[in-house]
Design goal:
- Helices cover 26% and strands 27% of the residues.
- The protein is of the alpha/beta class.
- It is globular.
- It binds NADP nicotinamide-adenine-dinucleotide phosphate.
- The site of NADP nicotinamide-adenine-dinucleotide phosphate (NAP) has 29 residues, from helix 2, helix 3 and strand 9.
Length: 307
Protein backbone atom coordinates (compact mmCIF):
# COMPACT_ATOMS: atom_id res chain seq x y z
CA UNK A 1 0.00 0.00 0.00
CA UNK A 2 1.03 3.61 -0.52
CA UNK A 3 1.90 5.41 2.73
CA UNK A 4 3.43 8.59 4.10
CA UNK A 5 5.91 7.54 6.79
CA UNK A 6 9.07 8.57 8.63
CA UNK A 7 12.10 6.61 9.82
CA UNK A 8 13.51 9.22 12.24
CA UNK A 9 11.95 12.05 14.26
CA UNK A 10 12.40 15.54 12.87
CA UNK A 11 10.92 18.33 10.73
CA UNK A 12 8.35 17.89 7.93
CA UNK A 13 11.15 16.85 5.53
CA UNK A 14 11.60 13.47 7.31
CA UNK A 15 8.30 12.35 5.73
CA UNK A 16 8.75 9.90 2.84
CA UNK A 17 6.14 8.61 0.42
CA UNK A 18 6.45 4.97 -0.58
CA UNK A 19 5.16 1.41 -0.35
CA UNK A 20 4.67 -0.40 2.97
CA UNK A 21 3.26 -3.93 3.49
CA UNK A 22 -0.54 -4.22 3.55
CA UNK A 23 -1.87 -4.72 7.11
CA UNK A 24 -3.56 -7.99 8.13
CA UNK A 25 -6.49 -8.25 10.54
CA UNK A 26 -5.69 -9.87 13.91
CA UNK A 27 -8.48 -11.31 16.06
CA UNK A 28 -11.04 -8.60 16.85
CA UNK A 29 -9.78 -6.35 14.04
CA UNK A 30 -10.95 -5.24 10.63
CA UNK A 31 -8.86 -3.92 7.74
CA UNK A 32 -10.19 -0.79 6.08
CA UNK A 33 -9.47 0.61 2.61
CA UNK A 34 -9.10 4.26 3.60
CA UNK A 35 -10.95 6.77 1.42
CA UNK A 36 -10.07 9.86 3.48
CA UNK A 37 -8.02 10.62 6.60
CA UNK A 38 -7.44 13.85 8.45
CA UNK A 39 -4.49 15.77 9.86
CA UNK A 40 -4.80 16.48 13.58
CA UNK A 41 -2.97 19.00 15.77
CA UNK A 42 -1.02 16.25 17.55
CA UNK A 43 0.48 14.71 14.37
CA UNK A 44 3.39 17.12 13.91
CA UNK A 45 4.22 16.80 17.61
CA UNK A 46 4.47 13.00 17.24
CA UNK A 47 6.60 13.45 14.10
CA UNK A 48 9.01 15.74 15.99
CA UNK A 49 9.25 13.32 18.92
CA UNK A 50 8.44 16.14 21.36
CA UNK A 51 5.14 14.53 22.29
CA UNK A 52 6.27 10.90 22.45
CA UNK A 53 8.93 8.66 20.99
CA UNK A 54 7.26 6.35 18.50
CA UNK A 55 7.60 2.60 19.22
CA UNK A 56 8.98 1.52 15.78
CA UNK A 57 10.03 2.74 12.33
CA UNK A 58 8.84 3.18 9.62
CA UNK A 59 6.00 5.01 11.40
CA UNK A 60 2.76 6.23 9.82
CA UNK A 61 0.96 9.23 11.35
CA UNK A 62 -2.79 9.87 11.44
CA UNK A 63 -5.58 9.09 13.87
CA UNK A 64 -8.91 9.12 12.04
CA UNK A 65 -10.33 7.88 8.76
CA UNK A 66 -13.39 6.95 6.73
CA UNK A 67 -13.39 3.99 4.34
CA UNK A 68 -14.56 0.50 3.34
CA UNK A 69 -14.06 -2.77 5.26
CA UNK A 70 -11.88 -5.09 3.12
CA UNK A 71 -11.00 -7.84 5.64
CA UNK A 72 -12.66 -9.10 8.82
CA UNK A 73 -10.61 -10.75 11.58
CA UNK A 74 -11.53 -13.71 13.76
CA UNK A 75 -14.28 -13.02 16.27
CA UNK A 76 -15.65 -9.90 14.55
CA UNK A 77 -19.40 -10.22 14.03
CA UNK A 78 -20.49 -6.58 13.76
CA UNK A 79 -19.00 -5.76 10.33
CA UNK A 80 -18.82 -7.47 6.94
CA UNK A 81 -16.61 -6.82 3.94
CA UNK A 82 -17.96 -3.82 2.05
CA UNK A 83 -19.36 -1.95 5.05
CA UNK A 84 -18.61 1.78 5.00
CA UNK A 85 -17.05 2.66 8.35
CA UNK A 86 -15.17 5.42 10.13
CA UNK A 87 -13.11 5.45 13.29
CA UNK A 88 -10.39 6.87 15.49
CA UNK A 89 -7.23 4.92 16.40
CA UNK A 90 -6.77 3.80 19.98
CA UNK A 91 -4.89 6.13 22.34
CA UNK A 92 -1.16 5.85 21.61
CA UNK A 93 -1.63 4.44 18.10
CA UNK A 94 -1.48 6.12 14.69
CA UNK A 95 -1.49 4.98 11.08
CA UNK A 96 -4.05 6.57 8.75
CA UNK A 97 -1.77 8.53 6.36
CA UNK A 98 -1.90 5.48 4.08
CA UNK A 99 -4.25 3.42 1.94
CA UNK A 100 -5.15 0.70 4.51
CA UNK A 101 -5.28 0.23 8.27
CA UNK A 102 -6.01 -2.70 10.61
CA UNK A 103 -8.13 -1.44 13.52
CA UNK A 104 -9.94 -2.89 16.50
CA UNK A 105 -13.52 -3.28 15.26
CA UNK A 106 -14.75 -1.83 18.55
CA UNK A 107 -13.17 1.52 17.63
CA UNK A 108 -15.08 1.77 14.34
CA UNK A 109 -18.69 2.63 13.54
CA UNK A 110 -20.88 2.59 10.46
CA UNK A 111 -20.36 5.79 8.46
CA UNK A 112 -23.44 8.02 8.31
CA UNK A 113 -25.06 7.96 4.86
CA UNK A 114 -25.32 11.71 4.22
CA UNK A 115 -21.82 13.17 4.53
CA UNK A 116 -18.94 12.12 2.26
CA UNK A 117 -15.91 10.12 3.38
CA UNK A 118 -13.97 13.41 3.38
CA UNK A 119 -16.52 15.05 5.67
CA UNK A 120 -16.62 12.10 8.07
CA UNK A 121 -12.81 11.83 8.22
CA UNK A 122 -12.72 15.56 9.01
CA UNK A 123 -15.24 15.18 11.83
CA UNK A 124 -14.15 11.94 13.56
CA UNK A 125 -11.45 12.87 16.10
CA UNK A 126 -12.49 16.52 16.48
CA UNK A 127 -16.07 15.35 17.13
CA UNK A 128 -15.02 12.78 19.69
CA UNK A 129 -12.74 15.33 21.40
CA UNK A 130 -15.37 18.08 21.45
CA UNK A 131 -18.12 15.74 22.71
CA UNK A 132 -15.96 14.34 25.53
CA UNK A 133 -14.70 17.83 26.47
CA UNK A 134 -17.90 19.88 26.26
CA UNK A 135 -20.51 17.27 27.23
CA UNK A 136 -18.76 14.66 29.41
CA UNK A 137 -16.11 16.85 31.06
CA UNK A 138 -17.42 20.43 31.28
CA UNK A 139 -21.07 19.28 31.45
CA UNK A 140 -22.05 22.51 29.67
CA UNK A 141 -25.69 23.48 30.19
CA UNK A 142 -28.22 25.65 28.34
CA UNK A 143 -27.95 29.31 29.31
CA UNK A 144 -24.31 29.07 30.44
CA UNK A 145 -21.60 31.33 29.02
CA UNK A 146 -18.53 29.62 27.57
CA UNK A 147 -15.29 30.96 26.07
CA UNK A 148 -13.89 28.59 23.43
CA UNK A 149 -10.28 29.49 22.68
CA UNK A 150 -8.99 29.01 19.12
CA UNK A 151 -12.38 29.08 17.35
CA UNK A 152 -11.14 28.45 13.79
CA UNK A 153 -9.29 25.21 14.64
CA UNK A 154 -10.78 21.78 14.05
CA UNK A 155 -11.80 20.81 17.59
CA UNK A 156 -13.09 24.33 18.32
CA UNK A 157 -15.07 24.45 15.03
CA UNK A 158 -17.01 21.41 16.29
CA UNK A 159 -17.16 22.64 19.91
CA UNK A 160 -18.70 26.01 18.97
CA UNK A 161 -21.54 24.25 17.14
CA UNK A 162 -22.01 21.72 19.95
CA UNK A 163 -22.15 24.46 22.60
CA UNK A 164 -24.77 26.35 20.56
CA UNK A 165 -26.74 23.11 20.12
CA UNK A 166 -26.73 22.71 23.92
CA UNK A 167 -28.07 26.26 24.23
CA UNK A 168 -25.02 28.04 25.66
CA UNK A 169 -23.83 31.58 24.92
CA UNK A 170 -20.56 31.20 23.00
CA UNK A 171 -17.61 33.58 22.89
CA UNK A 172 -14.58 32.62 20.83
CA UNK A 173 -11.17 33.94 19.77
CA UNK A 174 -9.58 33.94 16.32
CA UNK A 175 -7.51 36.10 13.95
CA UNK A 176 -9.23 38.75 11.79
CA UNK A 177 -9.39 36.59 8.66
CA UNK A 178 -11.45 33.91 10.44
CA UNK A 179 -13.96 36.15 12.25
CA UNK A 180 -16.76 35.60 9.69
CA UNK A 181 -16.00 31.86 9.60
CA UNK A 182 -16.49 31.38 13.35
CA UNK A 183 -19.60 33.60 13.31
CA UNK A 184 -20.94 31.25 10.63
CA UNK A 185 -20.41 28.34 13.02
CA UNK A 186 -22.73 30.11 15.49
CA UNK A 187 -20.44 32.06 17.85
CA UNK A 188 -22.33 34.86 19.60
CA UNK A 189 -19.22 37.00 20.20
CA UNK A 190 -15.85 36.88 18.46
CA UNK A 191 -12.61 38.40 19.71
CA UNK A 192 -9.79 39.06 17.24
CA UNK A 193 -6.91 38.05 19.52
CA UNK A 194 -4.43 40.26 17.68
CA UNK A 195 -6.56 43.36 18.29
CA UNK A 196 -7.91 42.71 21.79
CA UNK A 197 -6.81 40.85 24.92
CA UNK A 198 -9.69 38.53 25.83
CA UNK A 199 -9.00 39.18 29.54
CA UNK A 200 -10.06 42.82 29.03
CA UNK A 201 -13.36 42.11 27.30
CA UNK A 202 -14.59 38.78 28.71
CA UNK A 203 -15.67 38.06 32.30
CA UNK A 204 -17.99 35.92 34.41
CA UNK A 205 -17.86 32.82 32.21
CA UNK A 206 -19.29 29.56 33.52
CA UNK A 207 -16.85 27.55 31.42
CA UNK A 208 -13.74 27.80 29.25
CA UNK A 209 -12.67 25.26 26.63
CA UNK A 210 -9.05 25.93 25.69
CA UNK A 211 -7.64 24.47 22.43
CA UNK A 212 -4.70 26.92 22.17
CA UNK A 213 -2.44 26.27 25.18
CA UNK A 214 0.44 28.36 26.59
CA UNK A 215 -0.33 31.70 28.26
CA UNK A 216 -3.72 31.82 26.53
CA UNK A 217 -4.73 28.71 28.49
CA UNK A 218 -3.60 30.17 31.83
CA UNK A 219 -5.80 33.24 31.20
CA UNK A 220 -8.90 31.06 31.62
CA UNK A 221 -8.85 31.64 35.37
CA UNK A 222 -8.96 35.44 34.88
CA UNK A 223 -12.35 35.37 33.18
CA UNK A 224 -14.22 32.57 34.98
CA UNK A 225 -16.89 33.34 37.55
CA UNK A 226 -16.52 31.79 41.02
CA UNK A 227 -17.38 28.10 40.70
CA UNK A 228 -16.46 28.13 37.00
CA UNK A 229 -14.69 25.27 35.24
CA UNK A 230 -12.07 25.11 32.51
CA UNK A 231 -11.01 22.22 30.26
CA UNK A 232 -7.58 22.15 28.55
CA UNK A 233 -6.57 19.95 25.61
CA UNK A 234 -3.48 21.80 24.35
CA UNK A 235 -1.46 22.05 27.57
CA UNK A 236 0.02 18.59 27.90
CA UNK A 237 -1.23 15.52 29.70
CA UNK A 238 -1.89 17.30 33.00
CA UNK A 239 -3.69 20.42 31.74
CA UNK A 240 -3.28 23.66 33.73
CA UNK A 241 -3.31 23.91 37.51
CA UNK A 242 -6.01 26.18 38.95
CA UNK A 243 -4.60 29.07 41.00
CA UNK A 244 -7.57 28.93 43.38
CA UNK A 245 -10.15 26.57 44.81
CA UNK A 246 -12.75 28.94 43.29
CA UNK A 247 -12.29 27.19 39.92
CA UNK A 248 -12.21 23.63 38.64
CA UNK A 249 -9.45 22.73 36.18
CA UNK A 250 -10.15 19.71 33.97
CA UNK A 251 -8.10 17.65 31.51
CA UNK A 252 -10.54 15.74 29.24
CA UNK A 253 -9.73 12.05 28.86
CA UNK A 254 -10.21 11.67 25.12
CA UNK A 255 -10.57 7.90 24.99
CA UNK A 256 -11.89 6.23 21.86
CA UNK A 257 -14.98 4.05 21.69
CA UNK A 258 -17.95 3.36 19.47
CA UNK A 259 -20.56 5.11 21.67
CA UNK A 260 -18.76 8.44 21.14
CA UNK A 261 -18.46 7.84 17.39
CA UNK A 262 -22.22 7.21 17.43
CA UNK A 263 -22.70 10.47 19.37
CA UNK A 264 -20.88 12.28 16.55
CA UNK A 265 -23.19 10.62 14.00
CA UNK A 266 -26.24 11.56 16.08
CA UNK A 267 -25.16 15.23 16.15
CA UNK A 268 -24.52 15.26 12.40
CA UNK A 269 -27.87 13.60 11.67
CA UNK A 270 -29.69 16.02 14.02
CA UNK A 271 -28.32 18.87 11.86
CA UNK A 272 -26.44 20.27 14.88
CA UNK A 273 -23.05 20.03 13.21
CA UNK A 274 -21.91 21.09 9.78
CA UNK A 275 -18.53 20.12 8.43
CA UNK A 276 -15.80 22.65 9.19
CA UNK A 277 -13.85 24.28 6.38
CA UNK A 278 -11.78 21.54 4.68
CA UNK A 279 -8.56 21.86 2.65
CA UNK A 280 -7.78 18.72 0.63
CA UNK A 281 -4.37 17.14 0.09
CA UNK A 282 -3.07 14.07 -1.75
CA UNK A 283 -0.68 11.75 0.10
CA UNK A 284 2.13 13.16 -2.08
CA UNK A 285 1.45 16.55 -0.46
CA UNK A 286 1.94 15.30 3.13
CA UNK A 287 4.94 17.57 3.82
CA UNK A 288 2.92 20.62 2.75
CA UNK A 289 0.00 19.51 4.98
CA UNK A 290 2.35 18.99 7.94
CA UNK A 291 3.88 22.44 7.48
CA UNK A 292 0.46 24.10 7.39
CA UNK A 293 -0.76 22.19 10.46
CA UNK A 294 2.39 23.09 12.37
CA UNK A 295 1.96 26.80 11.47
CA UNK A 296 -1.25 26.61 13.55
CA UNK A 297 -2.81 29.24 11.31
CA UNK A 298 -5.43 27.80 8.98
CA UNK A 299 -9.16 27.19 9.11
CA UNK A 300 -10.98 23.98 10.06
CA UNK A 301 -9.47 20.71 8.86
CA UNK A 302 -6.75 19.43 6.52
CA UNK A 303 -7.87 16.14 4.91
CA UNK A 304 -6.19 13.53 2.68
CA UNK A 305 -8.40 12.27 -0.12
CA UNK A 306 -7.15 8.87 -1.34
CA UNK A 307 -9.81 7.84 -3.84
N1 LIG B 1 -6.72 13.96 22.88
C1 LIG B 1 -6.58 15.24 23.06
O1 LIG B 1 -6.40 15.68 24.15
C2 LIG B 1 -6.62 16.15 21.87
C3 LIG B 1 -7.42 15.82 20.79
C4 LIG B 1 -7.46 16.68 19.71
C5 LIG B 1 -6.67 17.84 19.73
N2 LIG B 1 -5.86 18.10 20.79
C6 LIG B 1 -5.03 19.32 20.82
O2 LIG B 1 -5.90 20.43 20.72
C7 LIG B 1 -5.24 21.49 20.04
C8 LIG B 1 -6.15 21.99 18.93
O3 LIG B 1 -6.09 21.11 17.83
P1 LIG B 1 -6.86 21.42 16.48
O4 LIG B 1 -6.45 20.33 15.55
O5 LIG B 1 -8.28 21.66 16.75
O6 LIG B 1 -6.30 22.83 15.98
P2 LIG B 1 -4.80 23.36 15.73
O7 LIG B 1 -4.33 22.88 14.43
O8 LIG B 1 -3.90 23.03 16.85
O9 LIG B 1 -5.02 24.91 15.74
C9 LIG B 1 -5.31 25.66 14.58
C10 LIG B 1 -6.12 26.87 14.93
O10 LIG B 1 -5.61 27.55 16.09
C11 LIG B 1 -5.96 28.92 15.96
N3 LIG B 1 -5.06 29.71 16.80
C12 LIG B 1 -3.71 29.69 16.82
N4 LIG B 1 -3.25 30.52 17.78
C13 LIG B 1 -4.33 31.09 18.37
C14 LIG B 1 -4.52 32.04 19.43
N5 LIG B 1 -3.48 32.59 20.07
N6 LIG B 1 -5.78 32.37 19.80
C15 LIG B 1 -6.85 31.82 19.17
N7 LIG B 1 -6.73 30.94 18.14
C16 LIG B 1 -5.49 30.57 17.75
C17 LIG B 1 -5.77 29.20 14.48
O11 LIG B 1 -6.66 30.22 14.09
P3 LIG B 1 -6.09 31.57 13.43
O12 LIG B 1 -5.43 31.13 12.13
O13 LIG B 1 -7.28 32.42 13.26
O14 LIG B 1 -5.06 32.08 14.42
C18 LIG B 1 -6.13 27.86 13.81
O15 LIG B 1 -7.43 27.87 13.26
C19 LIG B 1 -3.88 20.94 19.57
O16 LIG B 1 -2.88 21.33 20.50
C20 LIG B 1 -4.07 19.43 19.64
O17 LIG B 1 -2.86 18.72 19.84
C21 LIG B 1 -5.84 17.30 21.88
Amino acid sequence: MKAAYFEEHGGPEVIKIGELPDPVASAGEIVIDIHAASVNGADWKVREGSYKQVPYFPYVLGRDFSGTVCEVGEGVSDFVIGDLVFGVCDVGQEGTYCEKIAMKAALCAIKPAGPSHIDVAALALIGLTAAISVEDTLHLKAGEKILIQGGAGGVASFAIQLAKHIGAYVITTTSAGNVDYVKGLGADEVIDYNAQDFREVVSDCDAVFDTVGGDVAKGAFDILKKGGRAAFIASGANGVESPSSDFTSLRPNVYRDRPHLKRVVELIEAGAITVPAVKLFSLDETIEAQKLSQSRHFRGKLVFNFR
